């Protein structure tokens, strides 16, 4: 920097940096700081700032905001902060330390090329090894008319994936593996599959340099999933093919725009429940050094210690007014500036805790999100529990929030593996979980139905392992869920036994069928459509290697599960019955059939009280041009005969039978197979769907 820039008072709002015709406005929040220094660097990798601007409280402070305008600066300027103030950890919780360089919490992009996490801990000055923020001009981009897609929740099919894991493997043949740009190369696969939304594991800046531990093989295990953020307005540096200004912003926007052109929404998995700064032994990155007592839950008896409702060392004090503002403005930023279609909130129940950590009846941050005009047409999805034992499935605050339905996952897994006495629970799950969401006057679209997700077994491993195999995580197998409701079909792990393999394929088809033929919003885990495996690891959070990367050679090899999943999604689209955004309620159609009638092997005898029951059937009366349907779930190990209802002028035709090999497992419209009998023999461990059509060709007239 050759000459001193002109510095004026600037404006307190908006927070972060704002580029204008004359320069850049800087604003940062700190209620109790006594000194704030703005550090300006000429280049990202410079060890020292070229200029330090000390903000005078009489000129550069408005209430809790410190601000200035620097003439002549623009996009690409590298900057950071230092702050000083009280260091009274036990009473006030303040942790000011002028030796530590701080990121701007509102930074739109960050650089970590000099970052050393250990230098942000302890008493030494860390300027030479600090992260820095970048000034971004958000207007310098051509969206080409793009905007969020606003797909109705009832029409949504979610596909959860990890940005790096989707293309990091050499089998992906991506130009820049593991990046936002590489992900767009897989759009044809996703579009053919039929999903309507990708849900990206965290893409906010997180510290992937942190070595968690050394694995049994001597490799360094790091934070792979990204559930440890520090930059809530910044795309993750590690997912950019060129991690500089254009790489952070333009590359992320290019990805969103490409997905939208394919008709696919982009949902972000966001982590507002904790940050990368950890507990009192963690690094000072930004929040801790600016307003520790505001951003975090601290123990009231000794505020040097952090409450931990997340299992990650700290818990964000989300309902503090400034933190609520921060969270809401972050969300609105991603929608307004990056056209994001929705958010899935990790450990969302933590956001309903008040200052002392107790559950709030009306949490301000959750209602602010629900009622935001900017977010009014944005999908909001909660993981409705946290690491401190708060469990809110079916009672999460607000009406618009969709919720990950943990009971759906567990009940369906248990039923399909052959557990008895679950038919009442399965009926509830097929109908959209009215038992969970009905009491709050919510809808099936409040239920995110899933069998698998990033956290746990993949679909293939669910039918291939009885036990988790997490030794590679370096925690002696103590990590990950101990009870997975899985069944290995007779052999633990990979096998060449054709009978076991056929059974595993059938079980995967059964699980997928229940998922797609249930009311609510289905979610798939990336790679389940082609039997992606993690070798029995059900907690691969630290496995940035082939264990977690999608193997695209497998996608070419496993055509049966791929084709079945694709055609099953088509089948869900074929029949509106499964996508209705309401619970079954006994309404009659023009043929006087109820929208649902429950059966067992005998008509109208579902066996609700039968503790040995492993079968369930139902007749679904068709509305709005849908045919009447009959669904059979036989999870008994032997084949059974199921009575079929008689419908005047219609005959039953087979549409789906998971006991049949592909391509005969799902028949296309117009090629349904006539059932010339009043019973149907369902093979053991199979799902069958029949349609009542008017002639042998299966054409509804």
- Percent of residues in beta strands? 15-25%
Oligomeric assembly: single chain
- Give the overall average pLDDT: 96
Judged by helices, strands and strand pairing, the structural class is: alpha+beta
Major β-sheet strand ordering: 13-14-19-20-21-22-23-24
The percent of residues in helical segments reads: 10-25%
Distance from N terminus to C terminus (CA atoms, Å) equals 78 Å
Major sheet = 8 strands, parallel, barrel
What would the principal axes of the Cα set say about the shape?
Answer: elongated
Low-confidence stretches: 696-701
Please count the beta strands (DSSP E, at least 2 residues each).
Answer: 32
Radius of gyration based on Cα positions: 27 Å
Instruction: Quickly count the helices.
Output: 15
Question: Which helices and strands occur, and which strands form pairs?
Answer:
Blueprint: E1 7-8, E2 16-19, E3 23-29, E4 35-41, E5 51-55, H1 57-60, E6 61-62, E7 65-71, E8 78-84, E9 87-88, E10 94-95, E11 109-111, E12 132-134, E13 158-161, H2 163-167, H3 180-183, H4 187-193, E14 197-200, E15 204-206, E16 211-214, E17 220-222, E18 229-235, H5 245-261, E19 265-270, H6 287-295, H7 321-338, E20 342-345, H8 364-371, E21 379-382, E22 402-404, H9 406-417, H10 423-430, H11 434-437, E23 447-450, H12 459-462, H13 498-516, E24 521-525, H14 552-557, H15 559-574, E25 597-599, E26 615-620, E27 628-634, E28 640-643, E29 651-657, E30 673-674, E31 679-682, E32 686-693
Parallel strand pairs: 13-14, 13-24, 14-19, 19-20, 20-21, 21-22, 22-23, 23-24
Antiparallel strand pairs: 1-7, 2-3, 3-7, 4-5, 4-8, 6-7, 8-12, 9-10, 11-12, 15-18, 16-17, 25-26, 26-27, 27-32, 28-31, 29-30, 29-32
């Amino acid at each position: 920097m050759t000459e001193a820039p002109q510095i004026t008072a600037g404006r307190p709002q908006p927070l972060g940096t704002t580029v204008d015709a004359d320069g850049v406005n800087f604003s940062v929040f700190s209620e109790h700081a006594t000194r704030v220094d703005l550090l300006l660097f000429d280049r990202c990798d410079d060890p020292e700032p070229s200029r330090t601007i000390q903000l005078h409280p009489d000129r550069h402070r408005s209430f809790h905001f410190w601000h200035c305008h620097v003439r002549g600066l623009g996009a690409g300027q590298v900057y950071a902060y230092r702050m000083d103030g009280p260091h009274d950890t036990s009473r006030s919780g303040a942790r000011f330390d002028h030796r530590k360089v701080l990121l701007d919490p509102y930074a739109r992009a960050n650089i970590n090329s000099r970052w050393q996490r250990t230098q942000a801990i302890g008493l030494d000055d860390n300027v030479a090894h600090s992260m820095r923020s970048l000034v971004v001009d958000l207007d310098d981009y051509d969206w080409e008319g793009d905007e969020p897609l606003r797909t109705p929740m009832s029409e949504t099919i979610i596909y959860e994936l990890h940005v790096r894991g989707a293309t990091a493997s050499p089998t992906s043949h991506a130009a820049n593996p593991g990046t936002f740009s590489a992900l767009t190369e897989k759009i044809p696969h996703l579009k053919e599959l039929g999903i309507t939304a990708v849900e990206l594991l965290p893409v906010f800046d997180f510290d992937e340099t942190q070595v968690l531990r050394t694995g049994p093989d001597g490799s360094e295990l790091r934070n792979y999933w990204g559930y440890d953020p520090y930059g809530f307005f910044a795309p993750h540096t590690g997912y950019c093919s060129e991690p500089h200004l254009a790489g952070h912003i333009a590359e992320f926007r290019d990805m969103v725009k490409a997905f939208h052109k394919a008709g696919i929404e982009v949902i972000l998995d966001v982590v507002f429940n904790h940050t990368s700064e950890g507990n009192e032994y963690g690094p000072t990155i930004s929040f801790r050094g600016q307003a520790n007592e505001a951003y975090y839950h601290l123990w009231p008896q000794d505020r040097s210690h952090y409450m931990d409702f997340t299992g990650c060392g700290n818990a964000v004090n989300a309902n503090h007014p400034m933190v609520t503002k921060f969270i809401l403005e972050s969300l609105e930023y991603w929608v307004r500036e990056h056209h994001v279609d929705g958010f899935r909130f990790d450990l969302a129940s933590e956001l309903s805790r008040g200052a002392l950590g107790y559950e709030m009846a009306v949490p301000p941050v959750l209602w602010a999100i629900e009622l935001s005009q900017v977010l009014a047409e944005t999908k909001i999805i909660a993981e409705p529990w946290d690491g401190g034992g708060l469990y809110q499935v079916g009672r999460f605050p607000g009406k618009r929030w969709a919720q990950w339905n943990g009971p759906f996952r567990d009940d369906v897994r248990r039923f399909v593996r052959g557990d008895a006495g679950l038919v009442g629970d399965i009926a509830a799950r097929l109908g959209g979980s009215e038992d969970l969401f009905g009491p709050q006057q919510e809808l099936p679209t409040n239920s995110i139905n899933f069998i698998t997700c990033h956290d746990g077994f993949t679909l293939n491993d669910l039918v291939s392992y009885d036990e988790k195999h997490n030794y590679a995580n370096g925690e002696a197998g103590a990590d990950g869920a101990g009870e997975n409701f899985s069944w290995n079909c007779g052999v633990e792990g990979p096998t060449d036994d054709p009978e076991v393999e056929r059974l595993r394929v059938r079980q995967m088809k059964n699980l997928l069928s229940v998922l797609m033929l249930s009311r609510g919003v289905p979610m798939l885990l990336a790679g389940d459509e082609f039997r992606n495996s993690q070798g029995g690891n059900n907690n691969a959070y630290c496995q940035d290697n082939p264990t977690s990367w999608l193997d695209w050679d497998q996608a070419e090899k496993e055509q049966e599960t791929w084709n079945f999943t694709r055609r099953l999604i088509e089948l869900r689209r074929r029949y509106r019955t499964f996508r209705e955004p309401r619970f079954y309620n006994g309404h009659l159609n023009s043929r006087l059939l109820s929208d649902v009638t429950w059966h067992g092997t005998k008509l109208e005898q579902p066996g609700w009280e039968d503790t040995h029951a492993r079968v369930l059937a139902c007749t679904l009366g068709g509305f709005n041009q849908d045919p009447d349907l009959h669904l059979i779930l036989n999870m008994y190990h032997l084949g059974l005969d199921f009575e079929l209802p008689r419908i005047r002028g219609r005959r039953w035709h087979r549409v789906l039978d998971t006991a049949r090999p592909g391509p005969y497992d799902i028949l296309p419209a117009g090629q349904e197979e006539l059932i010339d009998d009043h019973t149907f023999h369902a093979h053991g461990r199979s799902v069958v769907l029949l349609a009542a059509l008017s002639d042998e060709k299966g054409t509804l007239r």
